[in-house]
Amino acid sequence: MLVVRDLVAGYGDIPIVRGVSLEARKDEITSIIGPNGAGKSTLLKAVFNLIKPKGGRVLIDGVDVTGLPPHKLVSLGVSFLMQRRTIFPELTVEENLEMALWKMRRNLTNRRERLERVYELFPAIARLRGRPAYLLSGGEQRQVELARVFLQEPKIVLVDEPTVGLSPKAAYGIYEMLTMMKGEVAVLMVDQNIRYASQFSDKLYVMVNGVITMEGSGETLSSSLKEIVKSWLRYT
Ligand SMILES: Nc1ncnc2c1ncn2[C@@H]1O[C@H](COP(=O)(O)OP(=O)(O)OP(=O)(O)O)[C@@H](O)[C@H]1O
Ligand SMILES: [Mg+2]
């Protein structure tokens, strides 16, 4: 489980994240929604220490990991899927997935087992395995990126805007994948597509102006999304 306590972070002297506390558990998709510029991406970056937090704590399964460099966090089981595309277009889907298994290059059986498990869990990826990635749609590419993250067997997956620029159908595919993954990892996601994201989220946090203004189950908050979005207009 990921616990963030009173996290403060920003750029230079400008405070952006101003004391955020939240939790993300295994078996759940936890989402942060909020207006543009609220500090959602900054929060994820501070958790992953791409920006050094100025205050507060980040804990993984009760262990304080605040300020550990990203590669250490990766080895402790944290993965960050950024908005920027990271697929290798000239490689096939399977070759792209194998990139995630580089660390296990001496253990061929285990590698094969892990790949087979991903194909079993995500049949859509299995069907595409031999295809060069440049031939995939944007949504399919994003799915391959998610599968690659999952292959690394993380405990916690941070996802920033997984569905931006995708059709509703493709976005649905991404949320379905995250739903499959949550049985094994804690998912902490930021998404613009708030209506969809809230439907697939077990827990929702609303972030405005660098602070959490509301939290609740996806179910509870999804019924008041209109009012929530209206309240953002006061800040923008
Ligand atoms: N490298 C940077 N240097 C200075 N200010 C930055 C930097 N990156 C972001 N900001 C500012 O920090 C604030 C929060 O940005 P952030 O990207 O965290 O917002 P966000 O909630 O993710 O918004 P969006 O929904 O548009 O992605 C914004 O006002 C932004 O202009
Ligand atoms: Mg953002």
Number of helices: 10
CATH class: Alpha Beta
Poorly predicted segments: none
The total domain count is 1
**What is the name of the CATH architecture?**
3-Layer(aba) Sandwich
Largest sheet: 6 strands, mixed
For this structure, the CATH topology is: Rossmann fold
Helix content: 25-40%
* Count of β-strands: 10
What is the overall pLDDT average?
91
The radius of gyration over CA amounts to: 18 Å
Chemical compounds bound to the protein: adenosine-5'-triphosphate, magnesium ion
> What would the principal axes of the Cα set say about the shape?
globular
What does this structure look like?
This protein has helices spanning 40-47, 70-75, 93-99, 108-121, 123-128, 138-151, 168-181, 194-200, 218-222, 225-232; strands spanning 2-11, 14-24, 29-33, 55-60, 63-64, 78-81, 156-160, 186-190, 203-208, 211-217. α3 (93-99) packs parallel to α6 and α6 packs parallel to α7 (168-181). The protein has 236 residues and is α/β, with parallel strands linked by helices. The structure holds adenosine-5'-triphosphate (ATP) and magnesium ion (MG). Adenosine-5'-triphosphate (ATP) binds at residues 11, 16, 34, 36-42.
